C-alpha cells in the first residue's frame, strides 16, 4: 500500500511538470498555430541562467525569479524577432524555424555554460514527512513542485478570465483579424503570449532540474513527454494539457514502478499511450477542433 | 486613371452634402496577384446616410471594405476619414479614429461568450460604463438573454445582432457592414435594417454597407453605388436606382 501511494505521488509530481511544459506548448499553439519545438531548449537556457546565479552565490529563490523573468524576455524576443516573419505563412516554415532555434539555443548553452554535467540544487529535501513512526511518501520537494505549478496555473486562469489584457489575448488567439478590427493590438498580445508561455516552460525546466544534473540537452526527455501530454489533451486546450500531463505522469510512474524491467519501458509506454489516445480520439481528449469546424 | 460615369452621377446624388462626407474613397485600386479586385473606385459615405454598395459576387465589394479598413493595402488611391488620410493607418487604429468594420461572415469570436464579445469591442476605449452595454442589450433583447452563452451557440440573426451591437460599443461615426443579410431570414433582415435606419436617423451615424441582396439594401439605403468587376458603374439615390429597370436587370439581379 505504501508502495502504491509512493508510486502515485511520484507520478503526480512528474505529471505536474509535464503539464506545465504541455501548457507552454498549448498557449503558443492556441495563439499562433505554431508548435514550438524550441520550448525545451529555451527552458534549458533559463535553467542555466539560474544555475550561473546560484554558483555565483545567489539564493535559489532569487535565481528562480531571474530565470522566470529571463524566460519571459526570451519568449518575447523569439516571437518578435524570429517567429513574426514566418507567422501566417506556410506551416512548415514555422516548424523548421523552431527546430532550428531548438538546435541553435542548445548549442549556445554548450558554448556559454559548457557541456559537462552540473548538479542543480533543490530548495527542499527529498525525505518524506514523518508522522509518528511512519514516513509518508510525500516530500517537501514534491509539494513544492505541485504547489508552484498550481500557483502559476491559477495566475494564468486569473489573467485570462478576469483582466482586460487576458480578454484581449484570448480575442487575439481565437480570431486575429476580428481582434485587430476591434482595435486590439494583436502583435503585442502575441508577444505577451509567447513570453508567458516561456515562463511556464521555464518553470517546468527548473523543476525537473531540481536535485539532479543538468547539461545542455537535459530537457530532451521532458520535451518528448511534454509533447505527448499536450497532444493527449488535444493541443488546443489548457485544461487538456494539464489532464494530459497528469495522466502521462501517473501512467509512466505505474509502468516504471510495477512492470517487470519497468524503467526500461517508460519511453515506449509514452508512445503507446499516445497512439491509443489518438486511435480512440484523433483530436485528443479535449480538442475543440470539431466544434470549431462545425 | 480609368474613370467611369460614376463620378458625375455622384454629384447629382450627393447634392449639397460635400461638407458632411465623413468617409471618402478616391481612385482606390487593390490587386490580388494579377487580378484587379478594385480598379479606381471612388465613392463617399455621408453622415446620417446609409450608402449601399451593390453588385454580384466578385464585384469587389468585400475587397472595398477590407481596403478601407486597412486589411488589404491598395496599390493606388486613398481613403480619407473626416479629412484625415487613413490609407496607410494600421488596422488596429481604425476604431479609435471612429470607423468600425463588421467583416463578412459576421466576425463573432465564437469561443468567447456574448458578453465577452461586447467587452472586446469596448476594450480600446478603456473603462466603459456598464450602461452602454445595457443599451446594446436593450436594442437586442434576444442576445441579452444569452449574454453568458458562448457565441458559437447563437443563430445567424443573433450573431448579426451581436456584431452590430459590438460595433456600436466602439461609438463609431462610420460603420462598415459586409453582407449583413447573408443567410438570414427575410423577417430578420427587415428587423436589422429597420434598426440600422433608426440608429442612422437618431444618431447621425454613417453606414457604408455592401450587399448582394440589392432589393433589401436599396429599400433601407439613401444612396446606392453599383460595382461591377472592380469598377463603379453608377452612383445615385437609392430611389432612382430602384426605379431603373434596365440597371436592375443588368447588375442587381432583380
TrEMBL record, chain A:
GO terms (BP aspect): amino acid transport
GO cellular component, as recorded: plasma membrane
InterPro entries tied to this protein: ABC_transp_permease, BCAA_transport_permease
Protein name: Amino acid/amide ABC transporter membrane protein 1 (HAAT family)
Membrane disposition: Multi-pass membrane protein
This protein's record includes keyword Transmembrane helix: yes
Keywords from the named record: Amino-acid transport, Cell membrane, Membrane, Transmembrane, Transmembrane helix, Transport
TM annotation in the entry: 12-29, 36-54, 60-82, 94-117, 143-162, 182-207, 213-232, 239-259, 265-286
Superkingdom of this protein's organism: Bacteria
From TrEMBL, chain B:
SUPFAM superfamilies xref list: P-loop containing nucleoside triphosphate hydrolases
Keywords: Amino-acid transport, ATP-binding, Nucleotide-binding, Transport
SMART domains in alphabetical order: AAA (SM00382)
Gene Ontology process terms (BP): L-amino acid transport
Matching Pfam families: ABC_tran
GO molecular function: ATP binding; ATP hydrolysis activity; branched-chain amino acid transmembrane transporter activity
Domain ABC transporter: 23-254
InterPro entries according to UniProt: AAA+_ATPase, ABC_transporter-like_ATP-bd, ABC_transporter-like_CS, BCAA_Transport_ATP-bd_LivF, P-loop_NTPase
Record family assignment: Belongs to the ABC transporter superfamily.
Identification of the protein by name: Branched-chain amino acid transport system ATP-binding protein
Amino acid at each position: 500500500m505504501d508502495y502504491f501511494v509512493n508510486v502515485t505521488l511520484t507520478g503526480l509530481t512528474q505529471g505536474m511538470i509535464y503539464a506545465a511544459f504541455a501548457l507552454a506548448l498549448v498557449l503558443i499553439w492556441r495563439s499562433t498555430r505554431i508548435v514550438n519545438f524550441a520550448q525545451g531548449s529555451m527552458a534549458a537556457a533559463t535553467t542555466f541562467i539560474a544555475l550561473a546565479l546560484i554558483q555565483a552565490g545567489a539564493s535559489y529563490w532569487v535565481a528562480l525569479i531571474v530565470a522566470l523573468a529571463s524566460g519571459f524576455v526570451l519568449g518575447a524576443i523569439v516571437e518578435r524577432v524570429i517567429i513574426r516573419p514566418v507567422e501566417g505563412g506556410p506551416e512548415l516554415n514555422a516548424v523548421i524555424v523552431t527546430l532550428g532555434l531548438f538546435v541553435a539555443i542548445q548549442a549556445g548553452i554548450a558554448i556559454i555554460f559548457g557541456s559537462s554535467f552540473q548538479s542543480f540544487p533543490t530548495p527542499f529535501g527529498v525525505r518524506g514527512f514523518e508522522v509518528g513512526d511512519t514516513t509518508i511518501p510525500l516530500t517537501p520537494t514534491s509539494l513544492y513542485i505541485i504547489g508552484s505549478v498550481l500557483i502559476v496555473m491559477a495566475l494564468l486562469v486569473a489573467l485570462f478570465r478576469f483582466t482586460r489584457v487576458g480578454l484581449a489575448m484570448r480575442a487575439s488567439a481565437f480570431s486575429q483579424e476580428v481582434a485587430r478590427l476591434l482595435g486590439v493590438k494583436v502583435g503585442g498580445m502575441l508577444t505577451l503570449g509567447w513570453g508567458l508561455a516561456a515562463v511556464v516552460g521555464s518553470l517546468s525546466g527548473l523543476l525537473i532540474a531540481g536535485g539532479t544534473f543538468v547539461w545542455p540537452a537535459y530537457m530532451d526527455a521532458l520535451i518528448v513527454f511534454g509533447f505527448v501530454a499536450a497532444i493527449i489533451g488535444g493541443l488546443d486546450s489548457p485544461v487538456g494539457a494539464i489532464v494530459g500531463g497528469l495522466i502521462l505522469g501517473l501512467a509512466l510512474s505505474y509502468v516504471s514502478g510495477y512492470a517487470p524491467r519497468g524503467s526500461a519501458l517508460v519511453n515506449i509506454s509514452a508512445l503507446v499511450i499516445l497512439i491509443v489516445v489518438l486511435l480512440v480520439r484523433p483530436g485528443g481528449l479535449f480538442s475543440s477542433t470539431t466544434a470549431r469546424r462545425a | 486613371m480609368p474613370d467611369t460615369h460614376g463620378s458625375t452621377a455622384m454629384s447629382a446624388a450627393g447634392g449639397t452634402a460635400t461638407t458632411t462626407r465623413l468617409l471618402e474613397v478616391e481612385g482606390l485600386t487593390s490587386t490580388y496577384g494579377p487580378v484587379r479586385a478594385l480598379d479606381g473606385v471612388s465613392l463617399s459615405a455621408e453622415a446620417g446616410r446609409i450608402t449601399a454598395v451593390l453588385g454580384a459576387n466578385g464585384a469587389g465589394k468585400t475587397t472595398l471594405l477590407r481596403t478601407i479598413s486597412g486589411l488589404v493595402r491598395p496599390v493606388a488611391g486613398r481613403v480619407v476619414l473626416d479629412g484625415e488620410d487613413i490609407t496607410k493607418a494600421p488596422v488596429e487604429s481604425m476604431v479609435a479614429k471612429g470607423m468600425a468594420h463588421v467583416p463578412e461572415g459576421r466576425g463573432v469570436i465564437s469561443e468567447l461568450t456574448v458578453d465577452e464579445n461586447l467587452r472586446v469591442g469596448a476594450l480600446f476605449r478603456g473603462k466603459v460604463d456598464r450602461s452602454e452595454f445595457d443599451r446594446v442589450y436593450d436594442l437586442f433583447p434576444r442576445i441579452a438573454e444569452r449574454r453568458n452563452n458562448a457565441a458559437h451557440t447563437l443563430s445567424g440573426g443573433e450573431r448579426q445582432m451581436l456584431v452590430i451591437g459590438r460595433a456600436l460599443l466602439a461609438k463609431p461615426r462610420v460603420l462598415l457592414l459586409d453582407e449583413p443579410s447573408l443567410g438570414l431570414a427575410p423577417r430578420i433582415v427587415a428587423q436589422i435594417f429597420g434598426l440600422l435606419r433608426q440608429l442612422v436617423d437618431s444618431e447621425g451615424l454613417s453606414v457604408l454597407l455592401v450587399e448582394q441582396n440589392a432589393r433589401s439594401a436599396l429599400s433601407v439605403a439613401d444612396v446606392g453605388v453599383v460595382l461591377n468587376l472592380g469598377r463603379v458603374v453608377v452612383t445615385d439615390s437609392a430611389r432612382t436606382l430602384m426605379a431603373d429597370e434596365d440597371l436592375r436587370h443588368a447588375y442587381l439581379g432583380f
